[in-house]
Write a structure and sequence with these properties.
There is one protein chain. Helix content is 8%, strand content 27%. By secondary structure, the protein is mostly beta strands. It has a single domain, classed as Beta Complex (Beta-clip-like), CATH 2.170.270. The longest helix is centred in the N-terminal third of the chain and has 7 residues. The mean pLDDT is 91.
Length: 156
């Protein structure tokens, strides 16, 4: 099997994931993997309340989070963009076991070889979005559609 993607340094931020071959619209590119944990476990382990602006935590469902800091794969290096070429989908387990739900990264348009894979992180923090917090979570995607932050408005 040929490698479809590769991780390397990114012009957006740190490491990134790039297409080695053409990826078709609708194609599942990679599963986001890591150690399953609860919100309480994540708070105990990381407890920064979003203050660092760097995380490999992905909310899976109301009960669990995937921690790609531990046993994570290449998907953890996919950067945020305000004009992404991928999306993260939650694939719910047919058995109803929330522990078996998965996150799959899917192409939302054709991606050419050499192009960096990105998706909108959709980060929602319960705390006030201060200027300092917006700076911590600054977006560096470089898109003309960039809103300047990875933070989304809080749900009402």
């Amino acid at each position: 099997m040929t490698r479809r993607i590769v991780a390397r340094r990114s012009p957006i931020h740190g490491n990134g994931v790039f297409a080695v071959d053409t990826i078709a619209k609708g194609e599942h590119v990679i599963e986001y993997k890591g150690t399953l944990m609860t919100d309480a476990e994540a708070d105990k382990m990381y407890g920064d309340g979003g203050e660092t602006g760097h995380t490999f935590l992905f909310t899976l469902n109301d009960e669990y989070i995937i921690d790609a800091n531990r046993k994570g794969n290449t998907a953890r290096w996919i950067n945020h963009s305000c004009d992404p070429n991928c999306q993260a989908l939650i694939d719910e387990s047919e058995s109803g076991d929330r522990r078996k739900d998965k996150v799959v990264i899917e192409a939302i348009r054709k991606i050419k070889p050499g192009e960096e894979l990105t998706y909108d992180y959709g980060i929602v923090l319960d705390m006030p979005h201060t200027a300092r917090l917006k700076k911590v979570w600054a977006c560096r995607c470089g898109s003309p559609k960039c809103i300047g932050t990875m933070l989304k408005p809080k749900k009402k």
